[in-house]
Design goal:
This protein has 141 residues and is an alpha/beta fold. It contains two helices and eight strands. It has a four-stranded mixed beta sheet with strand order 1-4-3-2, with helices on one face. The longest helix is centred in the N-terminal third of the chain and has 12 residues.
């Protein structure tokens, strides 16, 4: 069966936030994203790029929508528990300085959960950004 989309490639991930400046600062400080030119909408947006092929679009939250502001606010009994995050929605980045990265984010007071994949080689750390979006960082083997 032929795919409906021909020549498809990944473009970006969008995150809605009530404080796009705070979220942009987090991704710039933790992952080294650079701020790039973004369109001038009637609401605030910040576009970030980490590499030529990975962009993150931060979009000012529309207070009139009924969408949850952050993943753990979607349900009244939801919790921000990085121990459960490996089975939940998250973005993953690979780094070459895994141990130093984990030490650095812990020093910033970020709650983490570390584990190793069943292959015994790939180390993982799970945590949340300031808006509650799940993140994983994996070691490069």
């Amino acid at each position: 069966m032929a795919a409906a989309a021909v020549g498809a490639s990944f473009n970006h991930v969008a995150r809605e936030s009530s404080d796009v400046d705070r979220l942009a600062h987090f991704y710039q400080e933790i992952f080294g994203f650079e701020r790039i030119e973004s369109p001038k909408f009637e609401f605030k947006v910040i576009w970030l790029r980490q590499s030529p092929s990975f962009c993150l679009h931060l979009i000012e939250r529309d207070p009139t929508t009924k969408l949850p502001e952050a993943p753990w606010s979607a349900a009244s009994d939801a919790v921000a528990d990085p121990n459960k995050l490996f089975r939940g929605h998250h973005l993953c980045f690979t780094v070459s300085n895994f141990d130093h990265f984990v030490t650095t984010i812990k020093a910033k007071g970020i709650q983490t959960h570390e584990r190793t994949q069943p292959n015994g080689k790939t180390k993982q750390v799970f945590f949340f950004d300031p808006d509650g979006n799940g993140l994983e960082v994996a070691s490069s083997e």
